[in-house]
Amino acid sequence: MFLGLDLGTSGLRALLATVDGDILASAEQAYPVNHPHSGWSEQDPNDWVRALGAAAAELKANHPTEFAALKGIAISGHMHGATLLDENGQVLRPCILWNDTRSHVEAAQLDQTPGVRDLSGNIVFPGFTAPKLAWVRKHEPDTFARVAKVLLPKDYLGHWLTGKYISDMSDSAGTSWLDVGARDWSEELLSASGMRRDQMPDLVEGSDVAGRIRPDLAREWGVSEDVVIAGGGGDNAVAACGVGTLREGDGFVSLGTSGVLLAAKDSFAPKPGSAVHTFCHAIPGTWYQMGVILAATDSLNWLSRNLDHSAADLSAMVGNTISGPGSVRFLPYLSGERTPHNDSAIRGALIGLDIGTGQKELTQAVMEGVGFALRDSLEALKSTGTELNRLLAIGGGSQSRYWVEMLATLLNLPVDLPEKGEFGAALGAVRLAICAATGAAPETVMTAPKVAGTIEPRGDLTAAYDEAYQKFRATYPAIKAIQ
C-alpha cells in the first residue's frame, strides 16, 4: 500500500492506494490561514503535523490491515512557503505562505540583481521564498540570526516523517535559490539574499527515496520501519504526475483557487521576462513551464460571498453552453497577478456595468475574466516557444461545462475532460511513492486518465472572443494608471 499526501493551503488530503494506483480510501483535515496584517498570509506548521496525524489515524482505524502494509509515502505541497527552523529543529515563527506579498520590495531588489534571473530561470516574485528571507533579515533580525534551516511546507512534513532535511527539485525551483537548469542550489543565488548552502536541505528527485519513516513513528502507526518517503514535489508538478503530463507537448489547465496553464518540457528553456514560471519537474531530466493567475475559482467564490449565492448556483445561471462574450468586463486581480504582469499591487475591476446588469451577467463576466487571464498565460507560454495541441481540464471549475467551452474557444484548443475519479496532486503523490519504493519508471506509472469527453473550440465564436480578449488586454494598463 502507498500513501499520497496533498498539503494544500487550507487542508491536507491523504489517499491510501495499491501498487496499481487504485484508491482504497481517503481522509481530509482542514487548518486555518492567518492574516495578521494586510498582504500577510501565515500558517502554523504544527497544524500540518496535526492534520497528518489525524488523517493517518482515520485511515488506520478504517483500514487497519491495509494501512499496516504501507510501503511508501510521498507529499505534494503548496510551494514557496518559508518555514524557519533553529539549530534544534524548532519552528522560529509562523510559515510565510505563497500568497503573502509583504516582501514585494525585497523581491524587486533581488530581481534586479545581476545573474539572478539567468540562474533561477524566473522573475523573483514576491511570493517566492528568497525575498521572504530577505524581509525577515530586514524586519526580524533576531529571528533571522537563529535560522539554521529553511524548509518548504511539504519538506517540514517530510522532516517530521524522517528526521531528515530533504527537498526535491520541483519545489525548490520556486525559491529563487536553485539553479533550475543544473538542478542544484546556487551559491550565487543564496548569497544574493544573505543565505548559505548549509541552511538548505539536501536535494533529491521527487520520484527518488528521500528517507525512511522514523522508527518511533513506525511503531506508533503500526507499519514497517522500511516505509520509504519519496522526495515528493511542488503541487503543480505533482498534479502533472497525477494526470500524466510528463512529455513535451503535454499540458493541462487547472481551474482551482488559482488558475494554472502548465506545459511539460524536455529541456530547460526559460524566458523570465514573460513572467512564465520555468521549474524542474518532479521526475528526473524534465522541466515544466506554467502561467499562473492568482484568482480563478477564488474570483467566483468572491462573487458568491457578495451575492449570497453558492458558486454552484451562480454557475447554473449561465447554463452549459456559451453564446458569445458579454458586455461587462472583469479583471480578476483580487490578490494581484503573476503571469504576465508580475504585479502584486494591481487590484480587480468590473467595467461596463449598466442598470440592467444582474447576477447572471456578473457571473459571466467573472468567468470570462478568468478565461481572458488564462489566455494571457497562453500567449506568454507561446512567447517562450512552447506549443500545445490540446489541454486536460482539472480543478473544481472544470465541473462547469460553460467555463470549459469558453476556455476551449478563447484558447482555441481542444480541452479534454477526464472521467470522474481521483487524479491530480494526491494521486500524483501516490505515484511518486510507488516509483520511489519499487524503482518503477515514472512513465509506466504516471499515465494519463481516461477521457470522458472533449470540448472543441466554437469556431463560430472564436473571432468574437478574440476581439473581447484584445479589449481585456488593453484594460490592464488603463486600470494600472489610475490605481
TrEMBL record:
InterPro entries: ATPase_NBD (IPR043129), Carb_kinase_FGGY (IPR000577), Carb_kinase_FGGY_CS (IPR018483), FGGY_C (IPR018485), FGGY_Carb_Kinase (IPR050406), FGGY_N (IPR018484), Xylulokinase (IPR006000). The active site is at D235 (proton acceptor). The keyword Kinase applies. The record marks D6 as: Important for activity. Residues 1-242 form the Carbohydrate kinase FGGY N-terminal domain. Signal peptide: none annotated. Its EC number is 2.7.1.17. GO terms for molecular function: ATP binding; D-xylulokinase activity. It catalyses: D-xylulose + ATP = D-xylulose 5-phosphate + ADP + H(+). One of its GO terms (biological process) is D-xylose metabolic process. Pfam families: FGGY_C, FGGY_N. NCBIfam families: XylB. HAMAP family: XylB. Catalyzes the phosphorylation of D-xylulose to D-xylulose 5-phosphate. Belongs to the FGGY kinase family. This is Xylulose kinase. It comes from Qingshengfaniella alkalisoli. The lineage of its organism: Bacteria, Pseudomonadati, Pseudomonadota, Alphaproteobacteria, Rhodobacterales.
